[in-house]
Specification:
The chain is of the alpha+beta class. It has one domain (3-103). It is built from two helices and six strands. Strands 1, 2, 3, 4, 5 and 6 form a six-stranded antiparallel beta sheet that branches.
């Protein structure tokens, strides 16, 4: 069995689906048990949690609104603890953004 498939079985995902448009509006997941890369010699991840929220624009386009991620583990000989949060806002259509840039 390929490593990618084994690792994916260790995740506990939850999805929220927009019933009207059949689009994913939120996804969350975490490792159920530690994950190893290269039998633990290359990397060993003890914790991975993530959450992604999407927002629907007027034209039924969904774009990311927020991403939260937490990663703890070891890569080669270094311990790592990373938390990242990204927020997106002020969405504009490409034509509107190009016109706004041309007028300045």
């Amino acid at each position: 069995m390929p490593v990618v498939q084994r690792q994916s079985l260790r995740k506990k995902p939850e999805l929220w689906i927009d019933a009207q448009h059949y689009e994913v509006v939120k996804a969350e997941g975490s490792l159920l048990e530690p994950a190893r890369v290269g039998w633990g010699l290359i990397a060993n991840f003890s914790k991975l949690d993530f959450s992604v929220e999407m927002v629907r624009l007027d034209d039924s386009t969904y774009l990311p609104l927020r991403l939260d991620a937490l990663l703890q583990g070891r890569v080669v000989f270094s311990s790592m603890h990373q938390r990242q949060t990204i927020h997106w806002k002020d969405f504009q259509k490409a034509e509107a953004a190009a016109q706004k840039g041309a007028t300045h």
